[in-house]
Records
---
Amino acid sequence: MSPVDARALLFGSEAERDWQMVEANLQKAQSVDPAKAGPESAWVALAIDHACEAFETMLVRFERSLGLPQRSGAAWHRAILDEASRAIPGLRPALVPVDVLPDWADLLAFRHFLRHAYSADLEAPRLATLTARLARAVAVTAPAVRSFVEVLRRDVS
């Protein structure tokens, strides 16, 4: 196995693990009712945060696996999401279907809010809406992600 093949296999395995974390955190967010407030709201908010973190980590891994430059700047989170919604001819298909781009953007904005609003009240209706958006985004994005992970693995086999 060549070093390039080994890296592709490694990136595929890591990306698959990242996606599994997205799905596991979606299940956590769906496992409690945020309307109960207190710990339940915090549980949902953190599950959404962790799902978004895993998703973004996976997108970074995909870019690294293709040798794309590392992103920087204040808007890099939004830029990587926008780029993931477009195919890169000869390198990879679109990973985020355009119809769920607003869902992912809203989820990432919530993550930013959660990390910087230290004394914010976690509103149950907003958390329920975000959980539903996460469920939709995961369901619609999963086929493209799984397909690309398989391509990374198949190219090595």
Note: The chain has one domain: 3-156.
---
Amino acid sequence: MPKILWMSPYSLHDITSGASIHCRAILDSLLPHGFTVWSFSSFVFDRPYGGNAAFGDLGQLFARNPKAQLFQFDDRGIHYIYLKNQHTTEMERTVVEQNEFFAHYCDVLASYRPDIVVGYGTGMDSYTCFAEAQRRGIATVYLVMNGKHAHFTFPHLDLVLTDSNTTAALYAEREHINCTPIGQFIDPKYVVAHEHEPTFVTMVNPDFSKGLNLFAKLAHACLTELPEIKFLVVNSRANFVAGLPYLHEPGQPEVRPYQASDFSNVLMTNATNDMRLVYARTKALIVPSLAYESWGRIASEALLNDIPVMGSNIGGIPEAINGGGIVLEPPSHCTRDFTELPTDEEIAPWVAALKRLLTEDWTQAIATARSNVDLTTLSRRLAEQLTTLCTLRGAHQYQVRT
């Protein structure tokens, strides 16, 4: 069976990146189909603390191994190779670091001799790495997990994959690029809680673009409308309390009504690499995103836990909810200014929808909705696509750099 090399400066152990979590799940799912998978990347994360769960403090890790450039280990059947770097955000990486990344990548190509290079990243080293794979006769596959790849035409790729039909349609219309939707890969054993004590209405990642303004207004309204309800916020890439002072009344940027003491019904917890702990205590999930999302992974994870979801009709979120909850239109002014609060009238439909979510029986709707994330079906289809790709590429001609 084919050998796959994952290539990207971004870490697959980043718990603050939905794309990294999804791509790792995709690679994991190919192992039962006979694929061998290696990963070559660096310590780049969406947020500086994104790798803490896996690596601890990077400064201490590097201090314990001062001469090491490469860190290698096996995790869940995949062989990981990490290149040491000083800058943990992609745009801050130096030319020297990018050159080192490319040089070590070429060494991995020569020793591992993969049939397929899979990855993502729009930096020059990622671009060059894909071109080098093509030069050596290796099949190349790019994973698009957001709507931000405008003007990137994927010149050195045999196949461009994305998660949702929504994103495939976006790139077809906007960029005239053919992306193949493969769905959202979620292994239930890593996300489904064994026992449930549903207590909270939960929001994950209270970032402004994720709809902090809608959530805050909803939670505050529920102090009166649903006083018995408790909310839980998972502070992953953003912090609920830190964001509150920036929220303002419509058309009045100087009027900022909220502070932490106004939300006695909201509890917070930190990001975790085991979301089962969160889903075990969740009775309903809110995904009020205001910016484009390719899927909305947490919505599917919630549905796998028999949790109904309320979300905005932005991007692929309705595709992820798939009838297992309620989809609403966010106020247009909130999508233009992520810090502008909705009015009392505008939040009323969200309060009404939340009441429905908590009182109606969603059992059958959820069972139907989660059929679009059946891991066995999705992984089989992808394995067939990748095997066919290798067959079409034919015999590889590995060239030696001079």
Note: The first strand starts at residue 3 and ends at 7.
